[in-house]
From TrEMBL:
Belongs to the glycosyltransferase 47 family. The keyword Glycosyltransferase applies. It is a single-pass type II membrane protein. This is Exostosin GT47 domain-containing protein. It is found in: Golgi apparatus membrane. It holds the Pfam family Exostosin_GT47. Residues 153-433 form the Exostosin GT47 domain. GO terms for molecular function: glycosyltransferase activity. The chain crosses the membrane at residues 10-28. Keywords: Glycosyltransferase, Golgi apparatus, Membrane, Signal-anchor, Transferase, Transmembrane, Transmembrane helix.
Length: 487
């Protein structure tokens, strides 16, 4: 009995800690890659997305070698020993906390998830799901996306800073053309993904609302950005002095969310927020600093009555008699070019209006048309794109420098049409040249992809709330973080 007890102590106090230590060393020594290597859903991602140089001192990109290391027995041993947190009240042993930092434990869990997803992609494996299994051409890699989504559901934890009072923090209106900002802020705050223990979080939500700042703090006719940027700067200064989590990664595992056009400019006033953090933006303009490998493109969604009631659905392709439709104000140069070319045309197939005639229904025209034009206005985002998807009209995207929502998962070419500004005079010919069977297929794919843009109360799996979180998850899982003092 004494010999058995002695052997058990050796295993417990010597062997297991050595295995844990070796696994952590493997994770921390993974070498960075210069390309955006996760997710490898689509080959063009590797050349299209680049991480800003200089991040690797704190945030290391995962590469093929990293994936191999993440799947190694040493890392598996680390993950087997990680304490399982069943709820917020579960006690994590003091011995474990003494040997490994909170961030190292979080990174070990992410390494495990990353290895599982990459193995699914390599082996083209299908995952079981009682509700929905992504399939078909609308996805760049349906199996990898599904596995990643399931890992997100299982692992993702969001810590919401509780500092600050409404209306500038923790609140934004859920109505109007920018209402998706308020809806998502509220849904994050009451979400099952929220953790009250910041030590276990993968990402940290900075609950600033630029829409509320523009409504309640902006002084009309004052063109200075500094007072608005100061609100964001002061909040980041508060959380960075009160808590350790911002400083340990310089904000790389933090995110903000905003649909207001001013959100990019306000974030620019906080250099580390602009450079390092994940910014979830409707105004996803790559010519204005939006970084697809770090930031998240959020669809602008207008719910007139605060719900999707009356917005979903439309007739089949055979019942759509109009080729293409648009109605809207002349905001920005793209709409100006569109109106100059098509506003006064007498072609029944091409219905382009600045002001909709009184005998026409706006949503009725969406449902009568095969294609619906979704141009940029003063900024790149517009609710017409989602309105078209809701009502079965194929979106025609007239946008420069726009990063499409969920583009790392969805293949937009299967359910939408891109038209360049220089091609506006040839708009009808371009659309007429699309074969009928191709149009019918795009319309069908648009109906299938609709679930990812739907707004539900409460949220449902795979809807826009979960797709936004999955986009954040992808950006978080694509980097490895360690304490800044180690760099």
């Amino acid at each position: 009995m004494a010999g058995t007890s002695s052997s058990s102590k050796i295993v417990y106090f010597v062997v297991i800690p050595l295995i844990l230590l070796s696994g952590i060393i493997v994770i921390l020594n993974q070498k960075p890659s210069s390309a955006y290597s996760w997710p490898t859903f689509h080959n063009s991602l590797n050349s299209r997305f680049k991480l800003p140089r200089g991040r690797h001192s704190v945030a290391e990109k995962t590469s093929g070698a990293a994936a191999t290391a993440a799947a190694s027995p040493a890392v598996a041993a680390v993950e087997d020993q990680l304490p399982v947190v069943e709820n917020e009240g579960t006690i994590i042993t003091a011995e474990f906390r003494k040997n490994y930092s909170n961030l190292e434990m979080v990174e070990a869990r992410l390494a495990r998830a990353r290895a599982i997803i990459q193995e699914t992609e390599r082996n083209n494996e299908t995952s079981y799901d009682p509700d929905y299994v992504p399939t078909g051409s609308i996805y760049r890699n349906p199996n990898a996306f599904h596995r990643s989504y399931l890992e997100m559901e299982k692992e993702l934890k969001i810590y919401v800073y509780e500092d600050g009072e409404p209306p500038l923090f923790h609140y934004s209106t859920s109505l109007g053309i920018l209402g998706i900002e308020g809806i998502l802020i509220h849904q994050i705050e009451i979400s099952k993904f929220r953790t009250k223990d910041p030590r276990n979080a993968h990402v940290y939500f900075v609950p600033i609302s630029v829409q509320s700042i523009a409504t309640y703090a902006y002084v009309k006719h004052n063109r200075a950005w500094t007072p608005l940027q100061d609100i964001a700067r002061d909040y980041v200064n508060l959380i960075s002095t009160k808590y350790p989590y911002w400083n340990r990664t310089l904000g790389r595992d933090h995110f903000i969310l905003g649909c207001h056009d001013w959100t990019p400019t306000v974030s620019h006033g906080v250099p580390l927020l602009y450079k390092n953090s994940i910014r979830v933006l409707c105004n996803a303009n790559t010519s204005e600093g939006f970084k697809p490998s770090t930031d998240v493109s959020m669809p602008e969604i207008y719910l007139p009555d605060g719900t999707m009631d009356g917005l979903i659905g439309g007739p089949p392709p055979s019942a759509r008699s109009i080729l293409v439709f648009y109605a809207g104000g002349v905001h920005g140069y793209i709409r100006q070019v569109l109106m100059e070319q098509w506003k006064n045309n007498k072609d029944h197939d091409v219905q382009i209006h600045e002001y909709l005639p009184k005998d026409m229904s706006y949503y009725g025209m969406f449902r009568k048309s095969k294609y619906c034009i979704c141009p940029s206005g003063w900024e790149v985002a517009s609710p017409r794109m989602v309105e078209a998807i809701y009502m079965g009209c194929v979106p025609v995207l007239l946008k420069d420098h726009y990063a499409k929502p969920f583009d790392d998962v969805l293949d937009w070419s299967t359910f939408s049409v891109d038209v360049q500004v220089s091609e506006i005079p040839d708009l009808k010919n371009i659309l007429m040249a699309i074969p009928q069977e191709r149009y019918v297929e795009m319309q069908k794919m648009g109906i299938r992809v609709r679930r990812h843009f739907e707004v539900n109360f409460p949220p449902k799996r795979f809807d826009v709330f979960h797709m936004i979180l999955h986009s954040i998850w992808l950006r978080r899982i694509n980097i490895q973080l360690h304490e800044t003092h180690e760099s």
